[in-house]
Amino acid sequence: MSFTLHLLDWREGESRLRAVRESVFIQEQQVPEELEWDGLDAACRHLLALNAQGEAIGCARITPDAQIGRMCVLPQWRRQRVGAGMLQLLLTDARARRLPEVHLHAQLHALPFYRNFGFVEYGETFMDAGIPHLAMRLLLS
Description:
Layout: E1 3-9, H1 10-28, H2 33-36, E2 45-51, E3 56-62, E4 67-73, H3 82-96, E5 101-107, H4 111-115, E6 120-128, E7 131-139
Parallel strand pairs: 4-5
Antiparallel strand pairs: 1-2, 2-3, 3-4, 5-7, 6-7
């Protein structure tokens, strides 16, 4: 199953980015809309994964303070390396922009995924939108 990855800004991809996040976070994970739409999207760099037909299948963002977030993949595309491709491209982009480190808030089930890329957890488990998370960071330099 082939897919492509695209870095873009919110204006360029808003409708497709919204569709994926609404499906995964709001519908599947029951994240309240007011928490999902936090007002930061316009300032972020976004990543959009598209299938061969040009349909959105995954997305992520990185905030101006180097926090990776809102990373999600539609259920039928999970375990197809879409998430790994997205994270790798975000890290390549962060290194190209000479960011010293990136950080994220990982849902606990995703900890092994992020550890595979060298992320290290820190702090205590916390709840975000009713879902347990742990902070993680990766030094890039």
